[in-house]
Amino acid sequence: MPFLKPGLGSDPDAETAPPRTLVERAYLSLRHDVVCGKLAPGERLRVEHLKDQYEVGAGTLREALSLLVSDALVTSEGQRGFRVAPISMADLEDVTNTRVMLETEALRQSIRHGDAQWEAALVQSYELLAKTEIDLAESGSGRWERRNKAFHEALIAGFNSTWSKYLLSILYRHAERYRNINWRLTAGHASGRNVLQEHEAIYRAAIGRQEARAALALEVHIRLTHDIVRLQASQAELK
């Protein structure tokens, strides 16, 4: 589980902290560039070119790329090297369905078992996210993305399952990737969707220990992202 950061009580801007090793630095930089779309789906990743761009040796870069293979963001072609993982609507649907299955159950378990510390961390993460969403023009999309991820992590932090959190962290990155690619190609960000209201519904149900209502609100929230991306992608002929 490479570089997995805990959600409970963590700083939502922690990813701005200096990486601990050269491999981690290269891994985080490459992951960011894949997720934001700077490295395009299907693009060949030539170690001899990228090692200078990311300022690391060839061995370090290959190790970082291998970590991204385990995240399913990069594919390995054996002796032919690496490529950025392709995208498709079928893959997006699979990511969405799997995330709904895992994250709603993790939220249910978190509500059942979360203690006062879980509640306090959830309140803090929600308030930071709400402030960011209200002042989005000043906060910027990068800060919003970090705090949005921190909120989703805080929701399930009361569930003592390292594997669930690890798998969900990977699925979140893939969902983020589709959002970023779609928003760059289309007007998906101008959908008229009230994300702040969606987050509030999830938060109030979770903090009120309303397990079924919270899980339903979370599922609706995740699937709305899928539906908007699918609509915009069809208009842009994203395949």
Automatic annotation (TrEMBL):
Keywords: DNA-binding, Plasmid, Transcription, Transcription regulation. InterPro entries: GntR_C, TF_FadR/GntR_C, Tscrpt_reg_HTH_GntR, WH-like_DNA-bd_sf, WH_DNA-bd_sf. Pfam families: FCD (PF07729), GntR (PF00392). The keyword RNA-binding does not apply. This is GntR family transcriptional regulator. It comes from Polaromonas hydrogenivorans. GO terms for molecular function: DNA binding; DNA-binding transcription factor activity. Residues 20-87 form the HTH gntR-type domain. PROSITE patterns: HTH_GNTR. The keyword DNA-binding applies.
